[in-house]
Write a structure and sequence with these properties.
The structure holds 2 protein chains of 2 kinds.
Chain A lengths: L1 H9 L5 H8 L3 H4 L11 H5 L3 H8 L11 H21 L3 H11 L12 H22 L9 H14 L8 H9 L4 H19 L7 H21 L7 H51 L10
Helix pairs in contact in A: 1-2, 6-7, 6-8, 8-11, 9-13, 11-12, 12-13
Chain B lengths: L1 H21 L5 E4 L2 E4 H15 L3 H9 L2 H13 L6 E5 L5 H11 L1 H6 L4 H6 L1 E6 L2 H13 L8 E5 L12 E7 L8 H11 E12 L5 H23 L2 H13 L3 H10 L3 E8 L4 E7 L2
Parallel strand pairs in B: 3-4, 3-6, 4-5, 6-7
Antiparallel strand pairs in B: 1-2, 7-9, 8-9
Helix pairs in contact in B: 3-10, 4-5, 10-11
Classes of the chains: A mainly alpha, B alpha/beta.
Chain lengths: 296, 288
């Protein structure tokens, strides 16, 4: 993962999307997920990403000591083990307690996670994002697809990762929606959406960027929720829904573009007439009492 | 403020006198604003708590306006107790923290909400350790009042925070509420805490600490030095003990320094949280 981050940091052009990625990479949680081929590149970069990782795991009002890397690995290990129990126990402290017992650590460590259950959900979200990036890097065939289909495919891959936990996913969504947890969950979703657009091949950094991310965020969220109530075999209906939304999004994109041009034209028209009015007023005032006509 | 500067000068005069004597014997340590020999400190502290044991709880309520209950609730909330845990509460004589942990684990509401293994509920052990038998007796009495006299989960042990009688790596949690400033060698107590905790075990310390906020600091000092000893005299009939109390708070290391000491003992993820602007601080850490 560090290889891709470094590639994108130093690669051609430094768009805002790449800056966004490089500053909020939660390196601590992903250190265990890197494949063995990337293992050797971990150590030199782990120090650089230390401060960002520390700031994402610190809590409380007082200044924090930066946790040593082993401690963060330990936390990641506990969270990873806890995921195995989520299907049975839900996104709860009990699952985390069971996970910590699996790793051989006292369950008291659960008390030290900031926002307990939310830590587990956030870890899962980060892990899924990382898996998605890995899938993309290991050669996903997107060449023959039009953009809306590419987006559908990527979202489908990402949502399929949630299938083992689907019975407890509503609980995860409600945890993410707590006001305390909203900043982090919003950031994670923003990163996900950003990553998908980036993979689809869009590197724009103008105002369009926000519109695109928002639209895709909407597509992703609606599909996610649709999936919760889908009983069809292998979630066929969800994917159909997703394809339709993908197409809509692109039509929407076109119509947003059109709306923008339309607004610009109107603005120009209004601007011209306003300007004319002002000129007229100025002339009338400067030649007061005179019988000059306005510039209309 | 003037009172403080006077007592500082007074204290340093005592220091000069005693240091000539003390240099021949062991190291000197602080007992409030006085300097005393180390061996004497535990005896003096013992006397203080023998005197205050019976009215300890009432005085806590009066001095803090009932806030100490909220602070202890917060401490236990941070601990996040679980069924089957082995917990050690040091200097917890009258059992405030221990009872709260017991309730947190056993409360019916909690059991209904979460899936709890009934067997592991039996294994929960909360050890209350205190150096002063009078304080422990008050605690046992309170347990009896709650109907927990014969409950196997609560174990009352007499012991010294600097030399605990528990095995290495045996405790899931260690708390010390308003006790560590009375210990002669804080580093030893921290080292002992590190020793008895299991891997992943949590250390939590609730203690009166230093206030830095400008105006509030003066109000707090005024309250400490003027009001509290008088309350002690009025309610507990013991001015000196409460004078010692407020002085020992000033002598205790500030939040950052104490956090460094905890980290030096080997703990990870050392953090602290100030309550009421620094009047009280909860330090937490993990052993890995």
């Amino acid at each position: 993962m560090y290889r891709t981050a470094a590639k994108r940091l130093l690669g051609a052009g430094l768009t805002t999307s790449r800056l966004l990625r490089s500053t909020i990479i939660p390196s601590s949680y992903t250190s265990n997920l890197c494949t063995s081929s990337m293992g050797h590149t971990e150590s030199p970069i782990i120090n650089q990403s230390g401060p960002t990782a520390a700031s994402s795991t610190g809590t409380g009002e007082g200044p924090r000591r930066k946790p040593r890397p082993e401690f963060e690995e330990e936390q990641a290990r506990v969270l990873s083990a806890s995921l195995r129990h989520v299907a049975r126990l839900g996104w709860t402290e009990e699952a985390m307690t069971a996970g910590s017992r699996d790793v051989g650590v006292s369950p008291s460590i659960v008390g030290s996670f900031s926002r307990r259950e939310a830590a587990l959900v956030e870890y899962f979200m980060d892990e899924c994002l990382q898996l998605l990036i890995d899938r993309v890097d290991s050669g996903l065939d997107l060449q023959n697809l039009i953009p809306s289909e590419r987006i559908s495919k990527l979202i489908r891959i990402r949502l399929e990762m949630q299938v083992p936990y689907i019975s407890k996913w509503p609980q995860a969504l409600s945890i993410q929606a707590h006001p305390v947890n909203v900043p982090t969950s919003f950031k994670q979703r923003a990163m996900l959406v950003d990553e998908i657009w980036h993979t689809v091949g869009d590197g724009a950094s103008d105002l369009d960027w926000y519109v695109k991310r928002t639209v895709l965020g909407g597509v992703y969220s609606t599909t996610e929720i649709y999936m919760l109530t889908d009983d069809s075999p292998e979630y066929r209906e969800t994917w159909a829904f997703l394809d339709d939304r993908g197409k809509d999004a692109f039509d929407l994109k076109k119509s947003i573009q059109e709306a923008k041009y339309f607004a610009q034209d109107i603005g120009a028209g209004v601007g011209k007439s306003f300007q004319g009015l002002m000129n007229g007023v100025m002339q009338t005032m400067s030649t007061r009492g005179g019988g000059s006509t306005s510039a209309f | 403020m003037a009172l403080r500067s006077i007592s500082r000068r007074f204290g340093s005069r005592i220091l000069n006198y005693r240091s000539s004597v003390a240099s021949l014997h062991s190291h000197a340590t602080s007992f409030g604003f006085q300097q005393v020999k180390e061996e004497e400190k535990s005896k003096l502290v013992g006397n203080v708590f023998t005197n205050v044991a019976s009215s300890y709880d009432i005085m806590n309520d009066v001095m803090s306006g009932g806030l100490h209950r909220l602070w202890k609730e917060r401490l236990v909330g941070k601990l996040s107790p679980f069924a089957g845990m082995k917990h050690l509460d040091v200097a917890g004589g009258t059992g405030d923290v221990a009872f709260r942990i017991f309730d947190a684990v056993n409360s019916v509401k909690r059991r209904a909400l979460r899936k709890v293994d009934e067997d592991s509920l039996e294994e929960t052990q909360i050890y209350v350790c205190d150096i002063n038998p009078n304080m422990l007796n008050v605690g046992k009495q309170r347990a009896a009042e709650r109907g927990l006299r014969d409950n196997k989960s609560l174990v009352w042990v007499e012991g010294d925070a600097e030399a605990l009688s528990f095995d290495d790596n045996s405790m899931d949690g260690y708390t010390i509420a308003f006790g560590i400033r009375n210990v002669t060698h804080i580093e030893k107590a921290l080292a002992e805490a590190y020793r008895v905790l299991k891997r992943g075990g949590r250390f939590l310390c609730l203690e009166l600490s230093h206030v830095d906020i400008p105006v509030f600091k003066d109000v707090y000092d005024l309250y400490s030095f003027k009001v509290i000893p008088n309350l002690g005299e009025l309610i507990a009939g013991d001015r000196e003990s409460y004078q010692y109390l407020v002085e020992s708070v000033r002598r205790f290391p500030p939040q950052e320094k104490f956090a460094t000491m905890i980290a030096d003992a080997g703990f990870e993820k050392v953090e602290y949280e100030n309550l009421v602007g620094g009047v009280v601080a909860i330090h937490s850490a993990i052993k890995l």
